[in-house]
Amino acid sequence: MGFYRLFNEPALLIRDQTLLRQILMGQNFVHCADNAFCLDSSLNQLAGYNPFIAKGERWRVLRGELLPLFTPRRVRQSLPHIVAACQELKEFVHKSLNTECFEAKDLATRYTLQVVGSAVFGLNAQTLRGPQEKKSRWLVLLGPLFQPSNWSLAETIALLHSPLLGSLLSYRWIDRLLTR
Amino acid sequence: MTNTTLFQFRYVPLSLQSWLRAMVDARSPDNNLLNWLKVEQNKDILGHASTLLLEGYETSAMLLAFALYELALHESCQLRVLAEINQVAHRNGGADGEELLTPEALAELEYAEAVLYETLRLHPAMQSLQKRCTQAFTLPAQTAGEESAKDGLRVPLDIVLIIPVQAIHQ
Predict the structure, then answer these.
(1) Which residues 50-109 on chain A approach chain B with CB closer than 8 angstroms?
(2) What ipTM did this prediction achieve?
(3) Residues A101-129, buried b or exposed e (16+ Cβ, 10 A)?
């Protein structure tokens, strides 16, 4: 189905399951391999490593480097990190959770950050410490990262539609938090 | 540089990049994803670390939070998950939860896995996918039976293809 997306750019909306398969994994995958994001790579050096953003040959290389981390053997080897995080989660739920009412997103973020800190870095992110203790740096820095702000709509439009708007906003997908 | 300073002042007065670099440097020498990477350069490790970190926690946290929400709404499903967990724990030799955290026991939690997939159907991590055409090609025609049907649709270079994941799931 054809239509015009923002800024009068023609686009195709794909709904048919056979076509979806062809485009996402079948014979036409190579014809539309690029992710349709607009990011200024000089402002976004770290995001340039993200396979969801990278394009073409660079995407192929990056994906190839990440893929061996997720083989069945590697997943099995990652399990101890998850077991340890589950123990922390269990204690946190017993000690700190109000059973009448709790924020599921906060609890889930504490747990997944604990897993990521351990499995990716081998570090204890201490995100499941009790409320009376000091809040983990991981939560302080990363917790608000995906929360919407007043700029979110403009930034999303820039990311999906317009490199020009992106450069006006000096939009940095993650690196806006970064300094030299 | 004034610009950068302003941005720094305006958003987060802490440097995530140098923090991330410090975390990469502080990583343990044992089994972890960064040490399994087969890349030589430090900046490549830093780049992949940012991907693994940022793609690692938010989407999974959304899934878990929505799964808890849906289970709270559907009490019969909640009871069935609990019953399955107890059964599998019992079959694997205990009931305090430790026995569940083996690859074999986890694979037996079929209903719990189904709950997670159903949650992803209702609340997909990405509402839509967008791909850009890098080489013109022809999609097969969608209307059967007509003479012109075999012509198909020519997809020109650079056009954006949008896949409305959430709408398809509903």
Answers:
(1) 50-52, 56, 62, 65-66, 68-69, 74, 76-83, 86, 90, 104-105, 107-109
(2) 0.80
(3) eeebbebbbbbbbbbbbbbbbbbbbbbbb
